[in-house]
Fold this sequence. Notes:
Layout: H1 3-6, E1 7-19, E2 25-36, E3 43-54, E4 57-61, E5 86-87, E6 90-97, H2 124-134, E7 146-148, E8 154-156, E9 166-167, E10 191-192, H3 196-201, H4 204-208, H5 215-222, H6 226-235, H7 243-254, H8 256-269, H9 276-303, H10 311-329, H11 333-336
Antiparallel strand pairs: 1-2, 1-6, 2-3, 3-4, 5-6, 7-8, 9-10
Helix pairs in contact: 7-9, 8-9, 8-10
Amino acid sequence: MDAAAAAFSTLSALAVFASTVHHGAMRSVHGYRVVGKGGGSGWERWVEREFAFAPTWCREVPVPVAAPRILPAAWRGRPAYREGQIVGAWRCILAFDSVAGVKPPPTPPPVLCPFRNPMLVCLPSLYNDLRMVFQFQNFEKVPELIQCDSEGQLTSLDTKDKTSDEVDESGSDEDEELQSGEELPAPAQRRRRANRKHIASITLADIAQYFHLPIREASKILKIGVSILKRKCRQYGIPRWPHRKIKSLDSLINDLEYVIDDTERDEVQQEKRKKEEEYKQDAIRALAKRKRLLETEKETIQQKPALDLMAETKLFREDVFKRRYRAKGGVNASLVNNHSSPLLSES
Length: 347
């Protein structure tokens, strides 16, 4: 048996770095004390490894040869790292060194804790050294419920039979990148999205009856996600959900009482020019015509939600806001507007 076969190594240092450029990329530096069975001073062996983390998988990747490395190409003495240290594009999130007296934190970051991130068992080169540092005692039975395929994909015996249609509540089909130090979401928390046949069966008439509601409430009633509802609207030529436009028209119809009240005050100012009854009748006819126009425009918006409000309607809305302000604030109408709104004319 040669000297290399007779030697054994123990972990003496471990530093884990998170990339400040690419979320989910991590590197680790391992220091091992190698001692031969025959005794002697021994020597140290240093290894640098790189990993890729995502919410549903993790794997070890080769360290690029040409890329800047955390371990210096040549150094005198012994490298030492501390938590928070920046080395190029990498930030140290965990440091342990038995020789330099660098003690690890009481608990590792969530991404390096097997109780919060069970995918660590798919990375034995990192997981085994973390166990030596933190002495994970109660995690022995958990790996029995977890399997890792050849690509480092995490599968659970409780969840591997679920269909590929399971996504989160927001309706997104893409995995979000993991930031260092964040807790990984458990696969069991993922929810089933709407059936494809149900989504395809939703017509424009089904959607149109909920235009008066906010889009989130409409999506809940239709039992689909907000992003899916937006996609369906774009398919039917609806660039924006028309709830606000319909709500604005309803508000104008309901606020016609402020126009009537303010019109009566204008009658007093103009009683020398017109007879009171004639002016009042003209104003009532104009308001009735305006109401019919608003109701017609509301029906048009419900049928063609991509249309914008008419310019005349927008001007009328501004006039209503001014009259309502004067009615609530007690502002003297003669100081603000000494003539009736042209939008109330019956022309």
